[in-house]
Write a structure and sequence with these properties.
Layout: H1 5-35, E1 49-54, H2 60-69, H3 76-86, E2 95-100, H4 105-114, H5 132-141, H6 147-153
Helix pairs in contact: 2-3, 5-6
């Protein structure tokens, strides 16, 4: 039995229209997932803020899952695929981010790529008369950094040559007398 050419043409046109409609629907759904905030505030209301922490070395999949877990994205996979498509996986910056719920998932990613993180300020007072070793031990006690790392930083090196009062010192000179407590 031979199928008339007209029937084949109609079937192909219907399949093409279905493919276009399906592709358009998928495009609109993905666009909605990526460019629409999950929980936009009502007019006159302040948007709620959430804290998102990106750990150093965290994978793109982990970042996308974290964004979705705090309610800033509807679909972690769509966000991950978007970031891969845009080549953002190597540009994500670790840190703590305070993000508004009126941001779209793409805007959240842009903040993470730009490194717009919040930093905690730590105030340290060094009492007058402390030696470099006492300061190093104090830094370790308050968990700012290991004492040995502080001691290594207290040795004259090329990185300090841009400070005029240190330019004449020889390498490996201990900078104990150049610390100014207060």
């Amino acid at each position: 039995m031979k199928i008339p050419g007209r029937v084949i043409t109609v079937v192909l046109v219907v399949l093409a229209v279905l493919a276009v409609v399906t592709a358009a629907g998928a495009y609109l759904a993905v666009r909605h997932f990526l460019y629409t905030p999950v929980a936009a505030p009502l007019p006159g209301e302040e948007p709620e803020e959430v804290l998102l922490e990106i750990i150093p070395g965290e994978s793109l999949r982990g970042v996308a899952a974290s964004i979705a877990s705090v309610g800033l994205a509807r679909d972690a996979r769509a966000l991950e695929y978007y970031a891969r498509y845009r080549g953002l996986q190597a540009r994500l910056q670790a840190g703590r981010y305070v993000l508004s719920r009126d941001l779209s998932p793409v805007e959240v990613l842009q903040r993470i790529v730009s490194g717009d993180a919040v930093f905690e300020e730590i105030r340290v007072t060094i009492p007058e008369g402390w030696s470099a070793n006492e300061i190093a031990m104090h830094m370790e006690e308050i968990q700012l950094f290991p004492a040995e790392q502080f001691r290594e930083a207290l040795v004259m090196q090329d990185a300090y040559r841009d400070l005029p009062f240190l330019q004449e010192l020889e390498d490996d000179t201990i900078l104990d007398g150049y610390l100014f407590p207060d």
